[in-house]
Amino acid sequence: MHVTADRDVCVGAGQCVRAAPDVFDQDEEGIVLVLRQQAGDDRREITEEAAAVCPSGAVRLT
Amino acid sequence: MHEAVSFPQTRTCPLRPPHGYAELTAQGPLHRVEFVDGRTGWVVTRHEEARALLSDPRLSSDRADPGFPKISPRALVVRGQPPSFIGMDPPEHGRHRRMAISEFTVRRINALRPRIEEIAEQAAGRLRAAGPPADVVAHYALPIPSLVICEVLGVPYSDHEFFEDTSRRIARAGSDEETAASVRELAQYLDSLVEAATKRPGPGLIGKMVREELARGEITRESLVSTAMLLLAAGHETTANMIGLGIATLLEHPDQLAEFRADPDVVPGAVEEMLRYASVADTTGLRVATEDIEIAGRLIRAGEGVAIPNGPANFDPAVFPDPDTFDIHRGSRRHNAFGYGVHQCLGQNLARLELRVALPLLFERFPTLRFATPAAGFEPRRPDVNQGLDTLTVTW
């Protein structure tokens, strides 16, 4: 699963970091950073949860 | 033509949203409603449509728009006081919100844990000294978030009685004039803190915004005051409501309270369920359509107000089976207690941490904590304000 995040859309709610802390992070300004652009099967569930709880639609999975 | 439904409705039990909303959710996702100014609009009562609309850019948060839903006798806009970012739309909204989010990242909030534990411990000491019996709202639920948000923002806690009272008067104002008078009072106070921070470096988010965004001309002084006012009010009041309701809801469910006490691992999930069940800010999701929107077979016309309350979405049986049951093992974080979309609560991670610290600590320090007066005696608040308990007398 390929993980991207739109830093222009992000509102810094931090929900992705809570759901999948080894896939996402926030920079000093609070905006999303993708730590792993490929999420394997072991992280599929938490990454999908991160996308589901993202309030702004910044997190995209393909 | 469907008959207009009643919204907002007064709670029958202050611990949870009105039962009348469940009937609306069962009937359909959108309902015609008449707001207090006589305009007709919509209320959205299902989770799926609520989330779709809360993330729809064709809905605006501009309170100055004449179609913005008026659900309260208090004023939506006060002359001379610009909106805070909750009243802005993208891209202006994002520009203002981003000035504040660095203080609320998951990492920054997690680093506050030891300090919040210390604050909760001191509050527990003061509660003990005040009773038994004692009001757990006045001595515990309110002082913890109030002191925490003071430290985050850089507001002196010695002024807490003033800003707690003024915030309460703003929320519960009965007319435009009452709202304006209290807003001006709080704005003047916060402006004096901004003034002080321009002369020598000030603490917290206010100090940071004065040094950075105000100094660079990215925000006006009036807008900075509006941001501070929003965060100060939202930061102490909603969390205090949640701590109070969380205590009462756990006391009402002794078996789950026993588990909550015994197993720290259930605390985060229990807090999510408390947030869902209490839905304290269940009338905050208000928008006005800027274009026609077709959804669920209905047509929202441009200019119509849309109320998207959190409570009905959080009790939608399609997402939360058996929604009336409080269940700390529900295991769902998809509630709308903090709203949804770009306006989702900025302070939610702080609120969660405060709840995760304050609730277990209270029940640990007071193992025999119980209601001093029957829970049935709780008075619900008027329906247009954030819900909570004004007092909760406990004994131990």
Automatic annotation (TrEMBL), chain A:
Residues 1-29 form the 4Fe-4S ferredoxin-type domain. Coiled coil: none annotated. Its cofactor is [3Fe-4S] cluster. The keyword Electron transport applies. Keywords: 3Fe-4S, Electron transport, Iron, Iron-sulfur, Metal-binding, Transport. PROSITE patterns: 4FE4S_FER_2. It holds the Pfam family Fer4_19. Ferredoxins are iron-sulfur proteins that transfer electrons in a wide variety of metabolic reactions. This is Ferredoxin. It comes from Streptomyces lycii. The lineage of its organism: Bacteria, Bacillati, Actinomycetota, Actinomycetes, Kitasatosporales.
